[in-house]
Amino acid sequence: MRPFLRDRPTHEMTGQVDALTVALEQLGPGSDDAGKRSRLLGLRGDLLRILDRHDEALTDLRQALESAPDADTRVRHRIRIGTVLFYGGDHAGAEPELRAALAEAEDLGDERLTSFAHQHLAKCLAEAGRLDEARDAFETAFDIRYRLGENELASSSLQALRALESRYDEG
Predict the structure, then answer these.
(1) Fewer beta carbons within 10 angstroms: which end of the chain, N or C?
(2) pLDDT digits (tens, 9 = 90+) for 25-56
(3) Could you give the CA distance from residue 119 to residue 87 in angstroms, rounded to a whole number?
(4) Residue 30 gets which letter from DSSP?
(5) Number of domains in the chain
(6) Is residue 81 assigned to a domain?
(7) Which pTM was predicted?
(8) Residues 6 or more apart in contact with residue 30 via CB below 8 angstroms
(9) Residue 59 shares a structural domain with residue 128
């Protein structure tokens, strides 16, 4: 199993941000390799989000979205942007990004990516107190993941559903 970025020590992530900055500078602004630029900006944006540097993360992720070489990458960057907005407390700003990612993932016919978009949208809706909508999105993510045999991901959706149910019980 791949370790999560968020589980790395802060100094390691800061060093990676610095290394990515150097790599982007070496790539140069007029580089023909938009895909590489998009990947580097996306990774740096993820690290900046985890380091709670949300404004910088949004700048990088929006640039990554602009230089995304394909629809799959655009969806991933939209999910990342929505996640940064969500963790920054801007649920109203996060939701349209996550819904756009979901629509594009569905248009692509990529069920795994669609499940990620549902899962992230569900988290946003739950935090915004829209529990019925969140439950529907978590259930959809679970159904897709279960059908695809993605057991770890399905388990994650199931855990989220259980946590959501406990919020219903409290309310």
Answers:
(1) N
(2) 998 766 678 889 999 999 999 999 999 999 99
(3) 14
(4) T
(5) 2
(6) no
(7) 0.87
(8) none
(9) no
135 and 143 in contact (C-beta within 8 Å)? no
Residue 83 in any domain: the answer is no
User: Alpha carbon of 55 to those of 17, 67, 124: distances in Å?
Assistant: 14, 19, 19
Same domain, 107 and 157: yes
pLDDT in tens, 130-159: 999 999 999 999 999 999 999 999 999 999
126: containing domain: 97-171
102-134: burial string, b at 16+ Cβ within 10 Å, e else? bebbeeeebbebbbbbbbbbbbbbbeeebbebb
Is the sign of the CA dihedral 58, 157, 124, 166 positive or negative? negative
Question: Nearest Cα to 99, choosing from 71, 121, 131?
Answer: 121
CA–CA separation, 79 vs 135, rounded Å? 19
CATH number at residue 145: 1.25.40
Contact (CB, 8 A) for 144 and 107 = no
Residue 144's alpha-carbon distances to 91, 97, 101, 141, in angstroms, are: 24, 21, 16, 5
Q: Which residue has the tokens 């949208």?
A: 121
Length of the chain: 171
